[in-house]
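Box 3.1. Reading complex inputs
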Amino acid sequence: MAVYKRTYKAYSGPLTPPASRFLVLQRYAFRSVFKSRLLLIGYLLCFVPMIFVLATLYVNQNATLLALVNQKAGFFKIDGNFFLNILGFQFVLAGFLTAFIAPTLVAPDLVNGALSLYLSRPFSRTEYILGKGAVIATLAGALTLVPGLLMFTIQSSLVGWNWMLDNFYLATATVLISGIVLSIFTLLGLAMSALVRWRIVAGALILAVFAIGKGFGAMINNVMRTNNGVYLDMQSLIQTVAQDLFHNTRPVDDIPVYGAWIALLAICGVLLLIINRKLRVCEVAG
Amino acid sequence: MTPKPQTDIVFDNVSKFYGEVLGVNRVNLSIPPGVTSLVGPNGSGKTTLMNMIAGLLHPSRGSVVVCGVEPDDAEQFFRMVGYSTQYDSFPRGLTGYEFVECYLRLFGYSAKDTQRLAWEAIDRVGLREPSARRIAGYSKGMRQRIKLAQAIAHRPRVLVLDEPLNGLDPLARAETIALFQALAAEGSHVLISTHILHEVDLISDHVIMMNQGYVVAEGQIRGMRDEISEHPMQVLIRCDKPEYLASQLFGEKQVVEVRLHADRAGLLVRTRSAEGFYKLLNHIALNGVQIESVAPADDDAQSVYEYLIGHEESTR
Amino acid sequence: MTPATHSNWSLWMRQILAIMRIDLRKTFFAKRGLWIYFLAFCPEIPMVGHWLFSNQTDALANDVQIFSGIFQVFYLRVAIFFGCVGIFSNLFRGEMMDKSLHYYMLAPVRREVLVAGKFLSGLVASVVIFGGSTLLQFPAMYWHHGRELMHAYMFTGPGMSHLVSYFTAAVLACIGYGSLFLASGVLFRNPLIPAAGLLMWESINGFLPALLKKLSVIYWLQSICPIAMPNPRGNARNIMALLVVDIDPAPAGLAIANLLLIAAFVVVWAAMRARKLEISYGTD
């Protein structure tokens, strides 16, 4: 009898259900991301401004406290503009976070040949991308979507039912804008890491995409006397969409809101294509 | 009287530290021409030692001089030294020939000489046919051989090879070993690191054994074995009267242990003094024992390694 | 077989040419360097697009202003800067990443010669790419004004001297930034950290006191540019406005001499440090 027949016993215990198997990757990825104490401290510091904002919301409705400084309750207005400014700042933090963590999740797997180890298990490429993407989305979402909804909930609880009904668009706007921004950050992080496979360069490239897009867009606008260059400027596109969602009336670059939505979705599509092409196990002789 | 030219690779009290981690410590060696094998477990400091010979690392203390030249004198030093490293990496996009040729150009040779030397080296490692293909498509063994070609292309006097037999098939292995021996016969130093101990006996004139950053033994295997007094020497004897021979040997002081073979046609003797034992055996043989063969059982690299390093490894 | 008949200089020249032969091939034809071509030639895209598809012709003076803005804000500060990061950091640190630097170190080449050879190959590549693009941008920008007007601008107006100034600025940017990124590749495990620091320093250059302003590359480059940077328009106005700060330009001759001096000093320093360079490929 061959040796393996006497010694080999296949695993017969319970398996993680296929639908949630990508979360295994996420669980381990969290551990490795926060191995860096510096990153952990940096991440925790990102919550400090939000804690301050939430405290301010409470104080803003506390008549007793405000009376001490001769102010009435609700002395500053909580509206779309307020949400836009706070979330805008949090999105910047989330962008930097993505530039730091995304390359550490993917680039080493590709460089050191670990992706083939994942894919030699009952684990598909889609699950790998979902698992890694979920890490970025969860961490960045905790900085943007969660505090945004928390602001809305706290303000509603402090002011009342009517405020909530009147301003329900703030909650939907928070969900929609966070959804598109987190999708872009996640896909951008994965795509750039898979594209250059060099952790350091990938981090820089994630940030550079915004700067180069802005510069190139401005160049098109200036040379061609047009506004269409804005379609290459992700920051302006997000701003255009966000201002519309939060009923903000500040002047934006003159492109239609639907155009900005289409451009952002197209960018997501392009990033997905890059991921599909570059995040794969293959050996090319040449 | 002109001073005798220095022909050895000399390590003078060399230590190398990577921060707080010890690479090698207080190495004093003088390696003569011929094939020298460097053996030791992973992390014992073999590659560090080789990198220092080739000037890729600078000693934290002490100095390395190769045939009278220090690595700082790059223009003289690297005409004399060829190094095939452990790194299985190559510049992107090059064919085997281009890889050998383009780095030969750095030596300042004319285009004609460069081409001639490149082909000569490629032929020596038997890669002429695939040399027009990109290295990215080579097998592991072919990559090893093209690295070897690159290292010998400028005809160095000192050839340093970090695990050069890894990934080679048996035929290529035999050819490569023959190449090392030919180079050594031409008067070159060939310093090889390897894990395959039974080949050390075949290849090497000298052996350096390393463990945990220290040189634990150097020289010829037989000499090393003689110095290991705590392990009695083992001798295999095949004869017609093994029981009688065993009874005679039991009474002798230098004999530590005698074990009969299962087939009752021979015995294994462990003795404190090989020389004394052989004399004794001659004496016994004169008393009517027909001795078929006498062979030392543990004076090879494998046994010496086991005694000097293996025990320490297993107790770590 | 040893080339003992060569004098030292002749040998070093041969070695430098051999290094350039290897490195130029890598820089020009590497797939992963395609983004550098994009950065270098992306200004041509809207310029040619305007010429081909737009029938709106503005005064040539406006285009001269726009070109100046694009060159100083985008081309010098972003395109050439990041392009030089890609080309020059790669010369040493990229080889470290590919674990192929030891092949150079095992050749009988003095480290100083190796640094010089690598710097020259980076310089040739960057000048061909970015200098070439600068020369192409000029006709691309002004072609739609018609042959006569362009001829007049180039040969009877200030066009040719502008072109020479912009080309000189592009070449000097490659020399200046190239020397710094070559040195950062020799000295730092992660050359992007000093590159980010330099980017920051160059960005705030306009706000610095006169003396500190001069401790940068962009100050001297802007001094060579023939036209002061115009105020940006459109969606660039917010962030770009930060970069548009009036500078007190130095005379062009002094700027050129200073840049060459800075670059020479940095390359010599890098060469001295390269003597101590060891091969210790880590994992990334």
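In summary: Chain B touches chain C at residues 18, 51, 54-58, 72, 74-79, 81-83, 85, 87, 89-93, 102-103, 105-110, 113, 117, 150, 154-155 (CB under 8 Å).
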